[in-house]
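Protocol step 4 of 6: structure prediction from sequence.
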Amino acid sequence: MPESATDVRGGAVAPVGDQPMLVFKKVSLAFDDNVVLRDVSFTLRQGHTKLLLGASGSGKSTILKITLGLLKPDAGEVWVRGVRVDEMTEAQMMGVRTDLGMVFQDGALFDSLTVGENVGFKLYESTEQSLAAVRTRVEQVLELVGLGEFIDRMPAELSGGQRRRVAIARAMASKPRILLYDEPTTGLDPITALSVDEEIVKMRDLEEVTSVLVTHQLRDAFFVTDFEAVRGAQGVEFREAHERKLDEAEFIMLKEGVVHFEGNSRELRASRDPYITTFLS
């Protein structure tokens, strides 16, 4: 029996006003004989964070792809903001994706476009806003990630950490309710990775964005769960998370496609499960 620190509530969508942002209910997926996910269930509420841990191939990134509609599960249900999406067509999913922002591990910027053009790409292509309004929004999100002065630079002029922060700004430009992060600090040194972690926390706490973070970097995961961002006299400050905030960030550890653990950072650290203690060591 998998260890679970909290009840997994993958049932019916709650009434309007208390609607989960994301629900997986007994989701399974296999490629031929390779079972990737088996009966995965969890509920993600507004402003909360789920951090997906597990060995390579355990199904972490697959959960993001299913959420985006890039993969269809073999069984189970997937709900995004109260709408069931696992049976939707590609055309129907386009509307759902307006509420989903994706940050890839390599940033995935267009090298031929400026930083500002990269951040505003989706808005320039699909919005009815004026060019001036889009530019204003681009400036806002770049200021939020501390890169306002880089708006007219090219991606080749940026460091690895700056490229990741631009990717976060691009994901935020259209004001999605949910941000999905796929290994956003992979390949970065600890100091640069911390700057990306801080942006993830800022998006959650200052922009009230709901988050799903796939990572294998425990240092980054624990920073996101154990700290919160607040506006202070000197700008944005980071402090140890209050008790309520700690409970809004939960780990899901996958083992061979099954939810092996779900709980907050205190419960994860206190676990004596052999798989978890080996993973954390």
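Step 5 (inspection) to follow. Residues 22-280 form a domain with the Rossmann fold fold (CATH 3.40.50.300).
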